[in-house]
Amino acid sequence: MANQLSNYQVIGARLHFVTGRLAEHSLQDTLRHLSEELGFLYTIDVLGITVAALMTPEWIAKNIQVPDGTDMVVVPGYCEGSLRCIEQVAKCEVVAGPRDLRRLSVFFRQEPEDVIRYGHHDIQIIAEINHAPRLAIETVIKEAERLRAAGADVIDIGCDPGHTWGDVGVVVRELSDRSIPVSIDSMNPEEVAAAVAAGAELVLSVDSSNRENAADWGAEVVVIPDISSGPDSLDETIDYLAQRDVPLRIDPVLSPIGFGFAESLVRYMAVRKKYVDAEMMMGIGNLTELTDVDSAGINAILLGFCQEAGIRSILTTQVISWAQTSVRECDLARRLVHHAVENAVLPKHVETDLVVLRDIDRTKFEPGFFQRLSDSIRDHNLRVFVDEEGVHLVTKGTHITGDDPFAIFQQYLDGEGSRMDVPHAFYMGYEMCKAITALTLGKNYQQDEALDWGYLTVSEDIHSRIKDRKNGP
């Protein structure tokens, strides 16, 4: 979750916001509405600098003017490092707000109890390593560690049907010795016995064909219906194992879209109603791997179903390209759906890391913003913005907009091309590429910042700001 202040911290408080000259008008408009909504008083300190991103705590401490009675100072999110020097001057708490002032509403949104409770989960993630017999032992171990780091609780060793894997015990033992919980995915009793003897805790899967062996394994098993016999076979295998005290989880099997998907969800609910207290599992790869769509949304919906239905374990894979981060997605989704169900709240404005292709809000600039900005700029540095109208290139006395970055850049070069050197041209080309990507997808764009791809975001070094900071604001 993003860094946020809870509502109780700002209701009735006197807040003092620090900003630069370029953001003054936008901050005033934002705070005018937000203060009425949340009930706080505010003052704004416009320091003698154009771009707030260049501020440092030490520089702010030398220039800030804090009114008496202020309860909290909010500095720009770009202000990195300890804020203690500002607190010594301000004589009150100092916090770093969001980097983009348009995110202030999100920054103030969460109630304190929501923030404290968020993050719990009770759905176990079983991540399968497919075709493990075809891989070197070192490769299996490396993949298992990668899946565990992404959030997997149990590593499932996927075997190949048709032959017995002689090294299954060796692989399971290597993982168990590293304290990695292991399940074995095989219908071959010989492979399963070797895996369980080496430390496998769970067996996927058991039906009428191999249930007679299950009592000898001493491990928990996942029960599935016979492929050819229909759903009644599931009850028969459950009864058989229950009579022999074999611990089990029930998986009625999720069907792909077009092959009984809706009916398979009905089966899960029917099993839950019949076996009220039974442990259940859902193999979600039949949807994520077999549907031409990014997996994050599918994973969130399926885990939401599991949370409500009391299905406390899921099996996922990461084979197809559009599902290659499913474990991480499931780890985020299980926290989101647990929070929603347990607290009876909507799963909204809570876990923004699952919003990947779009953003949680869309940038909007008030009428006249770009003209005022152009009139107020005193240097020739280029500022890039994106909104629904297109990409905006703004500098002293110039505002160019459109949806073709080549045309925008050429228009600038025709007017002020003599100011553009090769390094700056490379920098602007990179920024314009990000800007047109944001325009195409409807994402927010912030110059010198990585686009927000949720949990896939990779932060960028802001070379221009680092260079400028050498000489101070």
Mean of pLDDT: 89
Cα distance spanning the termini: 31 Å
Total count of helical runs of at least 4 residues = 18
Helix content bin? 25-40%
Gyration radius, to the nearest Å? 28 Å
Shape: elongated
The CATH architecture of the largest domain can be given as Alpha-Beta Barrel
CATH superfamily of the largest domain: Dihydropteroate synthase-like
Q: Which class of secondary structure composition applies to the elements?
A: alpha/beta
Number of strands: 15
* Proportion of strand residues: 15-25%
Major sheet details: 8 strands, parallel, barrel
CATH topology of the largest domain: TIM Barrel
Instruction: Give the count of structural domains.
Output: 3
Residue stretches low in confidence (pLDDT < 50, at least 5 long) are 465-473
Biggest sheet: strand arrangement = 5-6-7-8-9-10-11-12
CATH class value of the largest domain: Alpha Beta
Key traits:
473 residues, alpha/beta, Rossmann fold, TIM Barrel, 3 domains, eight-stranded parallel barrel, four-stranded parallel beta sheet, 15% strand, elongated, disordered C terminus
How would you describe this structure to a colleague?
The protein is an alpha/beta fold and 473 residues long. The protein folds into three domains: 7-110, Rossmann fold, CATH 3.40.50.11600; 124-354, TIM Barrel, CATH 3.20.20; 369-469, no CATH class. Helices cover 40% and strands 15% of the residues. The protein has an eight-stranded parallel barrel with strand order 5-6-7-8-9-10-11-12, surrounded by six helices. The protein has a four-stranded parallel beta sheet with strand order 2-1-3-4, with helices on both faces. The chain has a three-stranded antiparallel beta sheet with strand order 13-14-15. The protein is elongated, with a radius of gyration of 28 Å. The two termini are 31 Å apart. The relative contact order is 0.09. Residues 465-473 have low confidence and may be disordered.
